[in-house]
């Protein structure tokens, strides 16, 4: 990113891929796409410079500023510049990255000294579920719970693997994709769904990638209900299997689909997706291990 001498600090937040199949609202990883907020001088009114289109506000109603003001209403207005390669409403945690950036903005400018735990708690209260905001803050693989408004998040190491994201050109708002989920699951289904998620966590944390991959494709919480919104999921999973994929899952609420597969298979896999007439973008991603970072440009 170009350095403007008037900028005092940069906040960089990674994209996230939530759920990993059966870890609905609980598991997530940070991936190597980023939102960067450069913070400039104090101004009379908030001004947000960005190239995200007219639908994203440039004043204090921008999600980043709104979040910062929610955390610290007395925060003085500044000029900020937002650059992001996280696509909006695609299941890669763009709204979480904006919320996390807003909390960080309030924390830094207001010298609040919030702990990471406090930041995750605040971000989860705003986003409603912790599976994107927790890895966006901590990096790597994070297992979380948010019950009765209380968050616990634990960071683990995700195995060194190559991700291929298939990112359709259409947006799918998380709210819309949550609206197709059932209001209730039977006790039996809930027990099965939970046991698959628990075993997946154990498999990932002990490096059992083959078992982990199988379990990632056995979700019972959300993917089957969302299939009508993301018809490409089944096809990509099928192509993945032909190329020794470890797993294919719906990233967050979709429509992005993530496939984890051996490096040497990625070119042939991508070719076959295109041949199948799937016209979205195909992007290779790694796990981001750092989470949110702050770079001070001047004091
Ligand atoms: N950097 C940003 N600045 C302002 N608003 C944003 C930003 N990123 C995301 N948003 C808002 O969040 C919405 C997408 O949120 P959501 O439906 O949860 O999708 P995602 O899966 O990308 O998080 C966008 O349509 C936009 O209104
Ligand atoms: N658990 C949530 C995750 C939403 O992630 P996003 O990246 O689509 O915002 C869900 O599946 O609804």
TrEMBL record:
GO biological process, one term: threonine biosynthetic process
Keywords: Amino-acid biosynthesis, ATP-binding, Cytoplasm, Kinase, Nucleotide-binding, Threonine biosynthesis, Transferase
Catalytic reaction equation(s): L-homoserine + ATP = O-phospho-L-homoserine + ADP + H(+)
Keyword Transferase: yes
Residue ranges annotated for the GHMP kinase C-terminal domain, each copy included: 201-266
UniProt-annotated binding residues for ATP: 87-97
Molecular function in Gene Ontology: ATP binding; homoserine kinase activity
InterPro entries cross-referenced by the UniProt entry: GHMP_kinase_C_dom (IPR013750), GHMP_kinase_C_sf (IPR036554), GHMP_kinase_N_dom (IPR006204), GHMP_knse_ATP-bd_CS (IPR006203), Homoserine_kinase (IPR000870), Ribosomal_Su5_D2-typ_SF (IPR020568), Ribsml_uS5_D2-typ_fold_subgr (IPR014721)
Pathway noted in the entry: Amino-acid biosynthesis; L-threonine biosynthesis; L-threonine from L-aspartate: step 4/5
Cell compartments where the protein resides: Cytoplasm
EC number: 2.7.1.39
TM regions (residue ranges): none
Record-annotated GHMP kinase N-terminal domain positions: 63-139
GO cellular component terms, semicolon-separated: cytoplasm
Function: Catalyzes the ATP-dependent phosphorylation of L-homoserine to L-homoserine phosphate.
HAMAP family per record: Homoser_kinase (MF_00384)
Assigned protein family: Belongs to the GHMP kinase family. Homoserine kinase subfamily.
Protein name from the UniProt record: Homoserine kinase
Lineage: Bacteria, Bacillati, Bacillota, Bacilli, Lactobacillales
């Amino acid at each position: 990113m170009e350095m403007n001498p008037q900028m005092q600090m940069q906040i960089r937040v990674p994209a996230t891929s939530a759920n990993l199949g059966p870890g609905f609202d609980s598991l997530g990883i940070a991936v190597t796409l980023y939102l960067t907020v450069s913070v400039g001088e104090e101004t009379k009114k908030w001004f947000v410079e960005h190239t995200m289109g007219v639908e994203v506000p440039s004043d204090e109603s921008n999600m980043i500023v709104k979040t910062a003001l929610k955390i610290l209403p007395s925060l003085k207005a500044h000029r900020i510049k937002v650059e992001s390669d996280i696509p909006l409403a695609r299941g890669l945690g763009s709204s979480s990255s904006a919320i996390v950036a807003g909390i960080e903005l309030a924390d830094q400018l207001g010298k609040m000294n919030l702990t990471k735990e406090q930041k995750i708690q605040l971000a989860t209260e705003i986003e409603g579920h912790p599976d994107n905001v927790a890895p966006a803050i901590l990096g790597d693989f994070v297992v979380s719970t948010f019950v009765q408004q209380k968050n616990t998040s634990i960071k683990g190491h995700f195995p060194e693997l190559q991700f291929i994201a298939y990112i359709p050109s259409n947006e799918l708002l998380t709210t819309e994709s949550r609206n197709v989920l059932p209001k209730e699951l039977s006790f039996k289904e809930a027990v099965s769904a939970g046991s698959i998620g628990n075993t997946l966590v154990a498999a990932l944390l002990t490096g059992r990638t083959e078992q982990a991959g199988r379990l990632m494709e056995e979700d019972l919480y959300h993917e089957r209900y969302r299939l009508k919104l993301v018809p490409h999921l089944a096809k990509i999973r099928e192509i993945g299997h032909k190329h020794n994929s470890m797993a294919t899952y719906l990233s967050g609420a979709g429509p992005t689909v993530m496939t984890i597969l051996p490096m040497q298979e990625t070119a042939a896999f991508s070719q076959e997706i295109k041949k199948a007439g799937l016209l979205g973008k195909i992007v290779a991603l790694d796990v981001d291990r750092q989470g949110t970072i702050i770079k001070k440009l001047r004091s």
